[in-house]
């Protein structure tokens, strides 16, 4: 019985241990993520971002952000754990080992006379004749009397001093740390014990495994449904125009799960009338186009209208129920657009190339959603050949303001950025009619806008020149600068209700053939991770080329300094195509800012195969490479906005713009880098 009571007393300790094993490391991970997220939240300080409320640290917002199911469950488990610790601590006091010397307040080895004196002293204090308190009576009978008997009996005292127990040496005991009622096998508790064993040892792991497998079979590692990826894969087309990307984007399975309520019909009808001009409906057949639009799946109609509400900044007219759906649509948008972009650049051709046109359209759609700018604003107009979308992302800017500054020959966003602070302030106050506070807001946003440069090289490692079938190593340093000196920061996005980090996509593509040769996502938020990745990549490359320890160390040190200075390393491998000259373009596109994209022209000449031997290799895009590739010539770096005209101006025809480029200079089989103005590059081509 005593052993059973002791095992039952250990049950809380057993539960406490089982809880602590997963709870403590999970809590540490959660806290580290929270600290890292707090350090990363460097955001825009303009009044519009401040009024959006998503960066405010109010008590209500803190409670709302904290009150998630995972956080509340974590707190509840810690409360239970603290209670078990407190209970175990008190229980240990109640279940102390019987120590007669401690009970009588004596030291081991004292004489019999001292034992009798201590007993008489405690008897005066706790004897029932002296103290009527029932607790005192219980303590006297169960503790003091037993302790006195154990020490006055010579055999018991010798056993206690020798073995620590009045009864002598104790045998080794084993037990189960379960409650006492579960160990009563003779009664009905036997079935309870069986249920306990089956539940904890069989059913619980089985339920966890079923939940995990069901989720893993439904979602990818990026928490996107497999059904969504399948739909994106089959709906993606090489000639998909940017305005048509929306039709593919809204087919996500996640959006199909958004509830469709009858009470939403009237608000959606009103929203449709507000955004009808943005839906690419044929005005000549408006009735048929409207009927065709409403015949789509109700969830698709609802999703597209809610996205258009974001693009046109009409979310304020939504009903409370639609506001919840609106936030859900925008919460899912960034990762769905990322997966859609991956589907665009997924190797589809026989050479293992993706498609450029839909990839550009996905990035442009992402920019418009984050900045809440209509897709129609990207079309060239009489005010600006590049569209007015870059202007509309600035606070206090509207169509009227853009038209006013256009009268002063400021028709491109780059011209506005390149103006001096005094000239820009004078233009915005005197010509556009903005206040000094508005101008200050605009300057804060312009200081947050990134400026990109790309330094790219391609070569066949260990060989001179690039030949057919070579495995070419692409290395690009993408450098980001901001006027305010920051590197990693959250973009200006007052109309996007969630924190959105900047992501950049590097695409090496042939705009003539619409092929993407190489793609990679770049982030400037995690400097530590970038340093680790760049160090490992450079170290492996140097060791592979046979460089010495000192050369490798110097190269790694130089790479670390570049990363700390705002650069990120992009490296990959691709297989050289057949012999010929290829005019490639390296696009560096941001998914959050409009008008900050850059492109670098790269002229590559692949020579005929003359080297012996082959190299088998599976490239990053998945194409099987057999031999090598070679490239040469010069690199021209220029603003993406100066050269690239958004394809929204050609959506009506849904045709791809094919740019004819002139012949290049003779190649010597090597790659040469050179940055020059458009006039210089034009003279070289002639």
From TrEMBL:
InterPro entries: C2_domain_sf (IPR035892), DnaJ_domain (IPR001623), Ig_E-set (IPR014756), J_dom_sf (IPR036869), Sec63-dom (IPR004179)
GO molecular function, one term: protein transmembrane transporter activity
GO process terms (BP): post-translational protein targeting to endoplasmic reticulum membrane; SRP-dependent cotranslational protein targeting to membrane
Signal peptide positions on this chain: none
Protein's UniProt keywords contain Chaperone: yes
Domain J span(s) in chain numbering: 99-164
Region (Disordered): 619-686
Compositionally biased residues, Acidic residues: 623-654
Main location class: endoplasmic reticulum
GO cellular component, one term: Sec62/Sec63 complex
UniProt superkingdom: Eukaryota
Keyword Transmembrane helix: yes
Topological relation to the membrane, as annotated: Multi-pass membrane protein
Pfam families: DnaJ (PF00226), Sec63 (PF02889)
Species this protein is from: Brassica campestris (Field mustard)
TM stretches of this protein: 12-29, 66-87, 192-213
UniProt protein name: J domain-containing protein
Function: Required for integral membrane and secreted preprotein translocation across the endoplasmic reticulum membrane.
């Amino acid at each position: 019985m005593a052993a059973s009571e002791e095992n039952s007393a250990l049950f809380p300790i057993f539960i406490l241990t089982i809880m602590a094993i997963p709870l403590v490391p999970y809590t540490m991970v959660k806290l580290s993520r929270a600290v890292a997220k707090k350090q990363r939240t460097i955001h825009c300080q303009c009044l519009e971002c401040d009024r959006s409320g998503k960066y405010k640290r109010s008590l209500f917002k803190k409670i709302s952000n904290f009150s998630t199911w995972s956080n509340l469950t974590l707190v509840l488990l810690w409360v239970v754990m603290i209670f078990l610790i407190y209970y175990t601590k008190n229980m240990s006091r109640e279940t102390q080992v019987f120590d007669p010397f401690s009970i009588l307040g004596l030291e081991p080895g004292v004489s019999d006379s001292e034992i009798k004196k201590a007993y008489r002293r405690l008897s005066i204090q706790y004897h029932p004749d002296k103290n009527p308190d029932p607790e005192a009576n219980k303590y006297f009978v169960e503790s003091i009397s037993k302790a006195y008997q154990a020490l006055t009996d010579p055999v018991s005292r010798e056993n206690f001093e020798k073995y620590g127990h009045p009864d002598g040496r104790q045998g080794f005991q084993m037990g189960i740390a379960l409650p006492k009622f579960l160990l009563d096998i003779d009664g009905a508790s036997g079935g309870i014990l069986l249920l306990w064993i089956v539940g904890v040892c069989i059913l619980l792991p089985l339920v966890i495994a079923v939940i995990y497998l069901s989720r893993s079979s439904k979602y990818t590692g990026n928490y996107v449904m497999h059904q969504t990826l399948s739909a994106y894969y089959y709906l993606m087309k090489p000639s998909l125009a940017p305005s048509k990307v929306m039709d593919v984007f809204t087919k996500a399975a996640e959006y199909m799960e958004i509830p469709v309520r009858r009470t939403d019909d009237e608000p959606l009808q009103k929203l449709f009338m507000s955004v009808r001009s943005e839906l690419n409906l044929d005005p000549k057949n408006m009735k048929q186009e409207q009927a065709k639009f409403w015949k789509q799946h109700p969830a698709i109609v609802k999703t597209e209208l809610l996205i258009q509400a974001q693009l046109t900044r009409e979310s304020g007219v939504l009903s409370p129920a639609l506001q919840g759906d609106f936030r859900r649509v925008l919460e899912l948008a960034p990762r769905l657009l990322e997966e859609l972009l991956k589907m665009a650049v997924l190797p589809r051709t026989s050479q293992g190339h993706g498609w450029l046109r839909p990839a550009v359209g996905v990035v442009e759609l992402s920019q418009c959603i984050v900045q809440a700018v209509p897709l129609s604003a990207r079309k060239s107009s009489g005010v600006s050949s590049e569209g007015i979308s870059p202007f509309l992302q600035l606070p206090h800017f509207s169509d009227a303001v853009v038209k006013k500054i256009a009268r002063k020959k400021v028709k491109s966003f780059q011209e506005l950025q390149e103006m001096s602070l005094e000239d820009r302030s004078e233009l915005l106050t005197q010509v556009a009619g903005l206040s000094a506070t508005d101008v200050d807001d605009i300057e804060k946003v312009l200081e947050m806008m990134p400026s990109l440069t790309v330094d790219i090289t391609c070569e066949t490692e260990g060989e001179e020149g690039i030949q057919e079938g070579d495995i070419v190593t692409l290395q690009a340093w993408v450098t980001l600068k901001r006027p305010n000196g920051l590197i990693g920061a959250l973009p200006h996005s007052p109309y996007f209700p969630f924190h959105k980090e900047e992501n950049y996509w590097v695409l090496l593509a042939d705009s003539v053939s619409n092929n993407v040769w190489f793609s990679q996502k770049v982030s400037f938020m995690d400097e530590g991770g970038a340093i680790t990745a760049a160090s490992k990549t450079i170290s492996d490359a140097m060791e592979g080329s046979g460089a010495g320890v000192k050369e490798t160390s110097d190269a790694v040190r130089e790479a670390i300094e570049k990363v700390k200075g705002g650069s990120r390393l992009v490296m990959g491998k691709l297989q050289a195509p057949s012999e010929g000259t290829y005019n490639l373009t390296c696009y560096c596109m941001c998914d959050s800012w409009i008008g900050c994209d850059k492109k670098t022209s790269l002229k590559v000449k692949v020579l005929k195969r003359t080297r012996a031997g082959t190299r088998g290799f599976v490239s990053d895009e998945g194409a099987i490479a057999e031999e090598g590739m070679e490239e040469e010539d010069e690199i021209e770096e220029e603003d993406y906005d100066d050269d690239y005209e958004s394809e929204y101006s050609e959506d009506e025809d849904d045709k791809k713009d094919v740019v004819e480029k002139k012949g290049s200079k003779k190649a010597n089989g090597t790659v040469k880098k050179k940055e020059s103005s458009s006039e210089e590059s034009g003279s070289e081509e002639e």
